[in-house]
Amino acid sequence: MKPINDTMNRPLNTNSPLISHPSSFPPPPVA
Questions:
Q1: pTM of this prediction?
Q2: Which of 4, 13, 14, 16 is the most buried if burial means most Cβ atoms within 10 Å?
Q3: pLDDT per residue over 1-31, tens digit each?
Q4: H or E segment at 10?
Q5: CA dist., res. 6 & res. 17, Å (int)
Q6: What is the pLDDT of residue 15?
């Protein structure tokens, strides 16, 4: 799994729930 920072650095990934609703649900587990 990619780190949250990597996801935030990629604005093109609009499919990511974190970018769409960052405060809607908790971040993914870094397993």
A1: 0.15
A2: 16
A3: 566 566 555 555 555 555 555 555 566 666 5
A4: none
A5: 14
A6: 56
Q: Which helix (H) or strand (E) holds 26?
A: none
Sequence-distant contacts of 26-31: CB under 8 A, at least 24 apart: 28/1, 28/4, 29/1, 30/1, 30/3, 30/4, 31/1
Between the CA of residue 23 and those of 3, 12, 13, 19, what are the distances in Å? 17, 19, 17, 9
Angle at 23 between CA 25 and CA 16, to 5 degrees: 70
Residue whose pair of structure tokens reads 């920072």 in the numeric block: 5
